[in-house]
Amino acid sequence: MQAVTGIFHSRMDAERAMVQLESLGVAERQLTLLTPEDAKGDVQSTATDATEQPGMGKAIGALVGASAGLSGGALVVAAIVPGVGPVTAIGLLGGAVLAAAGAEIGAIAGKKLENATTEGLPEDELFVYEDALRRGRHVLIALADDEAEASRFRELLQVEGAETVDAAREQWWIGLRDAEQERYSSIGGNLTEDEKFYRAGFEAALHSRMRCKEYDQVLGEMDARIEELQRQYPDRHPAEPFARGYERGQDYYQQICNESKAA
To answer: Which of the four pLDDT bands, split at 50, 70 and 90, describes residue 179?
Structure first.
């Protein structure tokens, strides 16, 4: 399966697009809407440290209920996502996304998720979703069975006014680039030359499976990524800027988690 995602400024627009996807026959298990909630809402939590591994958050309150007016009364899961805050998600796909993002979704939803498929779960895009949710956006995800179906979903989301994940990812990096260029220059680096490698390492640190892990803990996977970059750019030396980007990505994730807890 392939994830197709639209990011909306308006929850009303996101819900309308969700209804349109349902009208195309998208199964409930292949569809979710992630929505940021007011921190003063009903979801209760204790502090969660970013050094904890994803899926191991402490005592994060979860609410399992039924959605009103969408997905035929599908499950609604509410949880605190580290570095983001309170988020609700419709359906088991949404529960799987929240769990991958580091939220503990509770025993009831967790038991249901044991039998749910997570094929196509876009783990490498989670940090983009989180950034959108922190900014008050609404994230609609649909899993397509093949490329032809994915293309139809993209067209529908575009018509409904969604921003693509690729566009959101670029905006996220543009917002960071000047500060990262200054930091990289301060240690003798040239971001103009090394940006693709530095950014690849930065984003690797934000992958749901890599978060909060030291570089040497994931050395095998990181070496594989560097080798791939080396094949793509045989006349360049990606290893050092990639590793520096990874370290900065770790610091960035810890900082947003700390800010979220302090808010």
So the answer is: very high
Residue in the block written with tokens 């990874």? 246
DSSP 191-257: HHHHHHHHHHHHHHHHSTTTTT--GGGGHHHHHHHHHHHHHHSTTS--HHHHHHHHHHHHHHHHHHH
Token code pair at residue 99: 């769990």
CA 7/CA 142 separation, integer angstroms: 12
Q: Is the pTM of this model over 0.85?
A: no
Residues 6 or more apart in contact with residue 26 via CB below 8 angstroms: 142, 153
Phi-psi region of 62 (alpha: psi -120 to 50; beta: other; left: phi over 0): beta
CB contact set of 81 (below 8 Å; sequence gap of 6+) = 87, 98, 101, 102, 103, 130, 133
Sign of CA dihedral 255, 125, 179, 187: positive
pLDDT of 103 > 80? The answer is no
Furthest CA-CA distance within the chain: 57
Predicted pLDDT at 49: 39
User: DSSP string spanning 105-174?
Assistant: --HHHHHHHTTS--TT--GGGHHHHHHHHHTT-EEEEEEESSHHHHHHHHHHHHHTTPEEHHHHHHHHHH
Rounded Cα–Cα distance for residues 34 and 139 (Å)? 5
pLDDT in tens, 134-175: 999 999 999 999 999 999 999 999 999 999 999 999 999 999
Length of the chain measured in residues: 263
Residue 106 confidence class, pLDDT cut points 50, 70, 90: low
Half-sphere exposure of 28 (CA within 13 A, CB side): 14
Q: Of 7-11, 63-67, 136-140, give the lowest mean pLDDT range.
A: 63-67
